[in-house]
Amino acid sequence: MEAFRQILEKLGFVGVLTELMMFCCTLWVAVILGIVVGWAWKPKWVEKGFATLGKPLSVPSRERVLGSQTVEESKSIRETTVEESGVTSDDLEHLNRLVKETDGGSTWIPVMDRSQPTFSYQAWRRDSETGGPSQYRSKTVFEDATPEIVRDFFWDDEFRVESKWDDMLLYHKILEKWPSTGAIVVHWIRKFPLFCSDREYTIGRRIWDANGSYYCVTKGVNYAAIPRRSKPKRVDLYYSSWYIRPVESRRDGRITACEVTLFHHEDMGIPWEIAKLGVRHGMWNMVKKIEPGLRSYQMSKKQVGKEESSRYALIAATNSKINAGCLTNREASTSSSESSTAIRKLQRKSNPSIPRFLVIGGAVVLACCTLDRGLLTKAVVFSTAGRLANVRRR
Hints:
This protein is of the alpha+beta class. It contains 11 helices and 13 strands.
């Protein structure tokens, strides 16, 4: 307080206000330039780090990280085994623990609660305990909809593009499928708004039928036939899975509604705080497009027979039957704990910490290069840098 009083006496109120305005303008220019440069430039060590993500991890148990879980590495990508889709029973158990909130993660924070006559929507967010991207959970209840129609709707990439209810999807292709289980690997290219470039995904998918409720797992997987390119940028860490079940209608209490619980997180290659801001502002606009898309899909299914359904809908109807009671007995499997450890290592590699000396050095440069070289500006810069350095040290 004494230092601030001396600065105020020396500069006066107008001088202090002028310095603060100059500092804020300089800081915002630096932030904007940093974002633009960060998107346009990437050091070689980042390229090498992401390149290693596309290769199997060398561990004694011959396991590799695929999306949110681990699977045994297969000998050949073309052999028709379920494990090669990148989705196994470990993923089913993981999704079940997320649904029951027994996964051991941090508390979910409510971010949205909206409702309309034909559907309701709730959303939560939690930050990753390992420094990864924020995780999102949502619960949507559609009136007058069956779990089967909702299952097919979210699985049907052809309808996503044709109806444009998901206007971010530019390209999709089924790379490989396993008719016995309905597991598939798909290739996606999605467009991102503003100055973000397109993003590329190779995604493993599989559905389990638990007595009329559906566990639908989709996550990023490695696929050797699709080599990594500089553009579009490959998204390695991707997880988006649903639990779909019939529920009572809000109108009359009959089982005529369908509830969809979604869990989603991905590392899009942009600063996580900026991604969080974009999700918060764009979430409701995206959700509002889903319900009209579903109603249009319902009408189209009534007009065509089963033999005219899309490839994706036919695949969605081919799934693995399970007893829901069996999931409870397998929640404490050791493979899931090993998978969590591997994912923590992967996320830490993709978001390296900033050394303390860089924080302090950056503060020195900013203080020295500030346009008016005022005392107040330097005091704010060094105070902020000191706090940041202490946070990094802890």
